[in-house]
Design a protein that fits this description.
Elements lengths: L8 E5 L4 H12 L3 E6 L2 H8 L5 E5 L7 H13 L4 E4 L14 H29 L2 E5 L13 H20 L5 E7 L6 H4 L4 H13 L9 H12 L10 E4 L7
Parallel strand pairs: 1-2, 1-4, 2-3, 4-5, 5-6, 6-7
Helix pairs in contact: 1-8, 3-4, 4-5
Length: 250
């Protein structure tokens, strides 16, 4: 009888930079096969460089049919799916008075609708493997960020879904957890279109509200994601773990 433990297959969205890149590499370093999903080919190539377990897959998670195609690809190429990491996100926005549908719709589609559709598509495979969903949210959603309220609102909704799905899928042996990063050194400021001066101001505010007194590294968030998804965490579901240098409790 073959008692070999099968290689875990992990899908990570937003894997081209930042937390997604670090997470894909962390899982690959543990021996997993990682389907690294992102919109741009070159950043995904850089993510996979030197990590033979990472398989880049170019896709826009908000596109029609993308969720089903991502799951189909993972199953057809690798035969199973053990972990889904819903990491892709956008953080554009602004204070009340500046929001319109051109700002709101991409936030909803990327941060909320895409994780719903991708998780839904992945559930049959995750039931078969008794797998794990890890949602990446933000600690700002548990506090308040008056200059950009809609972004954390979408992430708070994803935390609510985390708890609901945890209860809904528990009878099938599927765990659902979330990691809520605080101030992390990623390109998110560039993606928000912040000027260097604005980014410095944001970082100064973040440092002033982070008890450990520094900005976190993507690898530190990736450690939390892989830890929550590990077999040793089998009795843990519905948890939202802050990785924020103590900002949430300050």
């Amino acid at each position: 009888m073959d008692t070999t433990t099968p290689t875990r297959v992990v899908v990570v969205t937003g894997a081209g930079t930042g937390i997604g890149r670090a997470t894909a590499r962390a899982f690959a370093g543990q021996g997993a096969t990682v389907v690294a999903v992102g919109r741009r080919k070159e950043p995904l190539r850089e993510t996979a460089e030197g990590h033979p377990g990472i398989r880049p897959y170019v896709a826009d998670v908000t596109a029609e049919g993308a969720a089903e195609e991502i799951v189909r690809t993972a199953l057809s190429d690798h035969g199973r799916l053990d972990v889904l990491v819903n990491n892709a996100g956008v953080a554009t926005g602004g204070p009340l008075g500046t929001l319109d549908r051109s700002v709101i719709t991409p936030l909803l589609e990327t941060n909320l609708v895409a994780p719903v559709l991708l998780t839904q598509a992945a559930v049959p495979a995750l039931r078969a493997s008794r797998g794990v969903v890890v949602n990446v949210t933000t600690t700002i959603g548990q506090r308040g960020w008056p200059s950009n309220s809609f972004y954390p609102a979408t992430k708070s909704a994803l935390e609510t879904l985390t708890r609901c799905w945890a209860v809904e899928l528990a009878p099938d042996g599927v765990r659902v957890v979330a990691v809520a990063p605080g101030a992390i050194e990623t390109p998110i400021g560039d993606h928000m279109g912040l000027s260097p001066e604005q980014l410095r101001a944001v970082r100064a505010w973040q440092l002033a509200h982070t008890p450990l007194g520094r900005i976190g590294r993507p690898e530190e968030v990736a450690w939390a994601i892989t830890a929550l998804a590990a077999p040793d965490a089998a009795f843990l579901t519905g948890t939202v773990l802050p990785v924020d240098g103590g900002a949430l409790v300050a």
